[in-house]
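Memo to structure team: turn this sequence into structure tokens by end of day. - J.P.
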Amino acid sequence: MMPQPSRLISLDAMRGFTIAAMIVANFPGNEEFVYFTLRHTKWNGLSFTDLIAPTFLFIVGVSIALAYAQKLDKGNPKGELYRKILIRSLKIFAVGMFLNLMPDFDFSNVRWTGTLHRIAIVFLVCAFIFMNTSWMQQAWIGAITLVTYWLVMTQIPSPDMGKVVLEPGQNLAAWFDRQYLPGRMWQGTWDPEGILSTFPSIVTGITGMLAGRWMLSRASPTEKVSYLMTAGLFTAAAGYFWGLTFPVNENLWTSSFVLVTSGFAALLLGSLYFLVDVLGHAGGTKPGVIFGANAITVYVLADIFALFFYRLKLGGHSINEHVVNGLIAIGIQPELASLTYALFFIGINFIPAYVLYKRKIFIKL
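Reply from structure team:
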């Protein structure tokens, strides 16, 4: 039996702050005025915003390890766990579909992919892998998947182009989505959360599971920190060098992107674990813990609130337009005005998150 650590405040805070960052990136005051690092890179490269989704998937992997190791140690029947995992995955996927359809519910123009859809798939596959493999087997599955994806994307020509291309809409993943992905695609002829790129995104979850396995080990807290920091540094460095031949790219979720972002996530978790759980410096983590307690619920509420703050017109302008235009009128830089509104919107979402937390209501899909 693996020793079970007390609840990791650092992981809860990391989950919550990641969701908060996701909301800031998704809901700026004005799409035209956004700092570069708060935008997704158009193609190759890495911005702050590009780190958010893989960090959350990494956290999903860590959480799987912490939760299901305990359940298995208690002797919970695997059949019952499989059923609950499947149901939870379907719930998350269904909520993602609800958000995609909202507010018009035009089923003839539905998109079948998205952030929650990918989270649901990664959770489902990673949880099943965790319950049936050792950490070494998980590492091999991850490594083989990344190498295979690299070879597929760089050695198999796109049928449309007749050659290997890694450009937007012209690569093999885009062709594959056009052939087999139903419904509307985010970019018209391709989708950043399409079929082929989902495979390396599962590896992002596996890297989180490996980190979670180490957190469950009998190593001392200092050793755990050292491992996470060292592994994070070397993983990110390996991703950087791999990126010289297979560019770091979130849209394709390239193998180099997996390593760089997982390395960053491991460094972040190691730092937070050392500061918060080892040294006891929990000051400032409360907002993250509150958001993290109902992370997906907050994410869904943000989309619902956006209907009112971004679509409801008052005097010919939406609420976000009124706020941003007012801030610009008093001399604030447009990008800063847009970010200020996004932080205000975070505050709006914090209210229900705080109420749920204080009442000890934790909505688990």
